[in-house]
C-alpha cells in the first residue's frame, strides 16, 4: 500500500500482502467515496478449473464491492449498506 499523485513518485507505506485468500481475485481497483470509505472491486474466476459457463462464452464475474480499511494488516468488509 502506498500513495501516488499525478506528477509525484509513488510512496510505499506498507509492503505487499495478498488481499484475498487465493489467486482468483484479479485486477482490483479502488476508489474513495464521498464519505471517506475506500471501496475495492475486482474480477473473480476459478481460472484453472473447468466451468459450465465457458461453453456459453462467459469467464468470471465482477466481485461484490469490499470496503478496505488500512492498518498493519488490511481488513475487508462487504460494502453493502
Quick summary:
With 81 residues, this protein is an all-beta fold.
Using the alpha-carbon principal axes, give the shape. Answer: elongated
Using only CA atoms, what is the Rg? 15 Å
| Helix run count | 0
For the biggest sheet, the summary is:
5 strands, antiparallel
Helix content: under 10%
Content-based structural category: mainly beta
Mean pLDDT: 76
Could you give the distance between the termini? 25 Å
Low-confidence segments, given as residue ranges, are none
Tell me the strand percentage band.
35-45%
Helix and strand succession? EEEEEEE
Secondary structure: number of strands? 7
Number of domains: 1
Supply the key terms.
mainly beta; 81 residues; 7 strands; two-stranded antiparallel sheet; single chain
Task: Outline the structure in words.
- This protein is an all-beta fold and 81 residues long.
- It has one domain (22-78).
- It is 0% helix and 36% strand.
- The protein has strands spanning 2-3, 11-12, 25-32, 38-44, 61-62, 66-69, 75-78.
- Strands 3, 4, 5, 6 and 7 form a five-stranded antiparallel beta sheet that branches. The chain has a two-stranded antiparallel sheet with strand order 1-2.
- A hairpin with a 5-residue loop joins strand 6 (66-69) and strand 7 (75-78).
Could you give the topology of this structure?
Elements: E1 2-3, E2 11-12, E3 25-32, E4 38-44, E5 61-62, E6 66-69, E7 75-78
Amino acid at each position: 500500500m502506498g500513495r501516488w499523485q499525478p506528477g509525484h513518485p509513488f510512496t510505499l507505506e506498507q509492503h505487499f500482502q495478498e488481499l484475498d485468500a487465493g489467486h482468483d481475485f484479479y485486477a482490483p481497483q479502488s476508489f474513495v467515496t464521498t464519505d471517506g470509505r475506500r471501496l475495492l472491486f475486482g474480477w473473480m474466476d476459478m481460472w484453472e478449473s473447468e466451468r459450465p459457463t465457458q461453453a456459453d462464452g462467459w469467464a468470471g464475474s465482477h466481485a461484490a464491492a469490499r470496503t478496505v480499511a488500512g492498518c498493519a494488516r488490511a481488513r475487508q468488509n462487504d460494502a453493502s449498506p
